[in-house]
Fold:
Amino acid sequence: MSKHKRRKIDPGEDLEQDRHYQRSLYDLQVELVKLQRQLIADGARVLVILEGRDAAGKDGTIKRLTEHMSPRETRVHAPGKPSNTEETQWYFQRFVPYLPAASEFVVFNRSWYNRAGVERVMGFASRSQVDTFLQMVVPFEAMLVRDGLHLRKYYLDISRAEQKRRLAGRHDDPLKQWKISPIDEAAQKHWKDYSRARDVMLARTSHAAAPWRVVRADVKKTARLELIRDLLHGFSYRGKSKALATPDETVVFGFSDATMPQMAP
Structure:
């Protein structure tokens, strides 16, 4: 038996933590509703890109981010396998139809960055295609921002042990088995390859017009709250709460050479 005893968790402590999470989430979602009313009034276009390893928590984050927003002006796009026609097009062409129009708030659950991540690691794209993407994506995003699009990019970063635990949990939970895919096994097998691809992607594509924000996502609830809080802090809107806390910089932070050591190896 281990000589280190686990601290017993008081059921009342867990309940209080959940209550705190629910209260905090509610307050942030109220702020999101205020923000969206302003975006609609201004005819603004917002695109939020969420990237991260498999099981990083993108689906759960998007659910909490959008569940009380207007279904008319809110859309979520999760790119699937490209069609034969899309394979022959300019790479970014397949994403353009899903960009937001006036007053729309759009979330990409993965995005054109598939090319620098899973496509690179799994060999779905050639080295030449990946290099071309890395050369073109910054000018492409800068063009969108110059045209008035509000672009926010978040990378959800988790540890190898936490990813392993979450992937195993998909097999145990019948409500999550739709998430199981052959890519799951490759996620752990190619962990270091994904780490290298992530580092290159972030270093090459974080730029003044659309910098990357990194979210340490091992603790799901904390990651959700801090991402939403960070997103809200990036906008001005009528009725913005003066009590809105500053995002926790130990959880969400801007990517740079200095912050790279904080990411999962």
